[in-house]
Amino acid sequence: MEGAAEETCKRRRRRALAEGAAGSGGGREWQAPAEEAAEGRRRRRRIAQQQTREKVRTNQLGFSLSRTAARVIHSQKPICSFAVH
Questions:
Q1: What predicted TM-score, i.e. pTM, was given to this entire model?
Q2: Region (Disordered): which ranges (predicted)?
Q3: Residue 20 is part of which domain span?
């Protein structure tokens, strides 16, 4: 896996150097993908954290609702219990 990643890294650098000017723009061309990757990682992490927060909130809400429902159901006297019939 690491070898493959290293290979694509080399290939990308070679292409960036080929696209950019021989010396001057080459370095700048190569800087962009690294920055983009870092930004992508940050964005993914932020989204993951947000999803986790939402999931936790939903679970808590569901739990409290189910507890409330259970309390209400237990407090009610059954009008007609189907088990008897």
A1: 0.36
A2: 1-55
A3: 2-73
